[in-house]
User: Fold these one by one.
Assistant:
Number 1:
Amino acid sequence: MNRSLPASVADYVGKISIPTCDLSAIQTRRIVQRKYSLWNPWMSTVVAAGILVAILANVPAVVAQVERVFRAFTIVNGHTVPLSVQTVSLEQARSHAPFTVIAPAGIPAGLQSTIRAFSSESDPRQARVMFEYHKSSADAPPPLTIMETADDGRPEPNVLFMTKSSDAVPVPSLPPVPMQPGDRQTMTVQDYKLVRDGKEKHFRIKFHPVSWVQNGTRVTLMSTPDGLTDKQLAAIRTAMQSR
Amino acid sequence: MEPVQEQVAAARRGDANAISDLVRSVWPDAYRIAWSILQDHADAEDAAQDACARMMTALASLRDPARFGVWFYRIVVNQARQKQREHLRRRDLTQDTHVVGLTPDERIDVARAIAALEPSLRIVIVLRYFYELNSSEISAVLGINAVTVRWRLMRAHRRLRPLLEPSTQLQGECLDEPLASS
């Protein structure tokens, strides 16, 4: 088909299918860019590698890496404000959280849990409890993360999590987890910036969290690839809902 | 003022709604330009999102708001190139299919031939013929010499020549200024 170059270029450009503009994802990238550029000198002095995990939290979600230091920040008026993070027991989490903590149940054998409580003096809404389940190998991302927050009907505040590590492994894509009726139909985009031997690698992962509200608490299940099967996740959800 | 320039002015004043509107306005261009370089959906979306994020951060440092377009396209191109470099590190990019040797008899759609051009040639003709930028503006966007821009335009045109109408070939359409002028 012979034709003019401008028309052909217009044809070529016109065939480009433009995805929806995801303002939230762009905002998150902005925060990550600013945060990373601020921390860069500091990061370069710390061990050999680091992982930056940014979470766009219309849905609370997190995947950690080989863990050394775990930090969390919230976004207030465009500024990042650190959250207090404590490793706690289930009882401590229950006394700490201003919402009903639903104890995880139906967890497959062989997973070891770490429980973290997040809080902010200035904003009680930031309180959350996170259960991370690891396999014996510390080098793999946790196959299961459960996040619990108060469900007050308002949108979740944005939260930024950062895990620093002495080594890091690329995080493979997550398998889709079927959404149940009533779940949030929101997909969370996470950016992983891994630094190894002075070189940056960038990974992008889309999560399909399973989330529901129970006794005023929003519970969100997240599973990593090769972590738990859909059947195991469904079993955990059923077991927790029966509590 | 053009609508985008009004949005730029309001966004520079810190108007959050204007910033959102501006990002929505420029998003299609960001994606198109990133796609023209990368030709991969996920990478183009990544690059376009990164470019919009950087634009939001750097907007206050924009010296001449009237040149927002060129300034922003440059950011997009840089992000796309960064993504391209990441790709090159990850795998050998030998997938480009050049259109050398194609003849009109093959009746290949020129748009497909454009898609098969090298990224460095493709982005130049997209900026020239779709965004209607002149050589010096393309030069500013790509960070290359204006002569190089015109050279690439000519190379792209030569590659596509067998598929184009005779009346649209060569001077006038391909080169906004003759090579000899610089």
Number 2:
Amino acid sequence: MAAEFALESLVIDEGDAHRDHLRACPVCRGLLGEFQAVVNILPVALDVTPTRSELKDRILAEARADFESEVTGPLVEPLKSDPKFGWRDWITLRVFTLSGAVAVVIVALVVWNINLQFRLDDQKDVNSDQAILVDAIADASATTLLPGTDKASGASGSLVLTAPEGDALLFVRDMPAIPPDREFQVWSINDSGAASVGVFKPAPAPARAVAFAFDFSESDAIGVSIEPIGGSAAPTGDIVMLGTR
Amino acid sequence: MSASLDNQRVKQAIYTLPDEQGEAITLTYYGGQTQREIAENTGVPLGTVKGRMRLGLQKLRCMLIDTESRDSD
């Protein structure tokens, strides 16, 4: 078994058993020496491949180098630090950065607050107007219905007094089409005649609201006629809406 | 091992061995197979493989070491 032992062709158990035997057998030790001398020559037959021990050492060295490069290599690219930029500078920079951020937030909050205030004021005005309008509509005496005449049977409207001093809103719907050189004129009518309240142009939308400032306390009826641009002193065109108060 | 044992001389010695002995030594030393693996792969009894290894090494010794000793004398 000395030949197989020298060639390292024994499995582990066999090799261990023979190694134990060699300790007690000088004959086998001598034989092993002879075979080992031959085995030591065998690597010379290889062209470039190193001996087993050299190959083992080289593989271990490469594995160790790979392991060390993986373990000790830089995990994160180090920051390029300026040697003149010390830790105090970092603190100063952070303070400035923080202060700047706080200032930006404060300015943004102020602008937002102002914007909200304006929107709130606008909403208050709208709410106030709506409240007045709702009160006026609820008061039947403040509203004058303006049905369409035979000249504009599909039209309808209502005049709502929104203030005791005479402010009014005229709501109209489905007004008739009129030539470009014409517009609608609103009249306050009583026994003494018709007084002009104001004019308004037709709108693309089927419904619209027009505000007027006029004292309707003497009005017995409200009418809307078709008049030339700028209005007339007295109704000259077709009366399209008429309602009594 | 002498420096005079060059690559070609060792190769020639191995090639000179009988095929089965050269095969056993080559598969063992250069192929890394155990004697049992050689026996299984070649279909030869294990004892035969052992004998081929022993005879092969003995012949190589004669061709390489003993000859070298005579040459050096």
